[in-house]
Amino acid sequence: MIVYVESNFILEIAHLREEHENCDRILNLSVTGEIQLVLPAFSVGEVYEAQTRRAKRRAELHGKLNAELGELARSRPYRDSRDEFMKITKALIVSGEEEGQRLDDAVKRVLAAADIIPIERDTIASAFKLRLTRRLRTQDAIVLASVLAHLAAAGPKPKCFITRNSKDFANPDIVADLSKSDCELFTSFGEGYGFVIGHSV
After folding, report:
1. I want to staple 8 with a disulfide (CB 3.0 to 4.6 A). Which of 37, 50, 99, 164 is the partner?
2. Residue 30 sits in which domain range?
């Protein structure tokens, strides 16, 4: 079986989100060779772009919070709470550093277990068309174009594409695009894992 995933698969594992255990189970099936896990190369760049945005927001929040807490600590009723205030702002920085390390670790794990779909010239050309016909953001269009290109040469084995991005991918036209290659779409890693296990029995 071929299981296609994208950036939110990595982020789910890295940030220990609510479906990370199902992602770990899927990843382990790939490690043991029970499934073929496939990831568009573009998705690796996406996770770091998302992490950069997240770190920037956190740094801005840290600066604002630090300034406000500093002013508050100047007030006599809160002067003794300064150390507690500083712990809060420090936690923002420390958690960001820890998340960055977990992301690197998650990317390494996935790259060690997955096949990577390269970004070809035809993939970009197809993405431009999909952006218009499927009303997708450019990033999502590149992911879909990558998956469709790989599906075209994948053969008759069972296939599924699992993504948490139901807003953009769960529309009838995209479901039809995937169905032409006998590929099921799931917008929950739990449902996707259930499908994989059901076809592994």
Report:
1. 164
2. 2-44+109-200
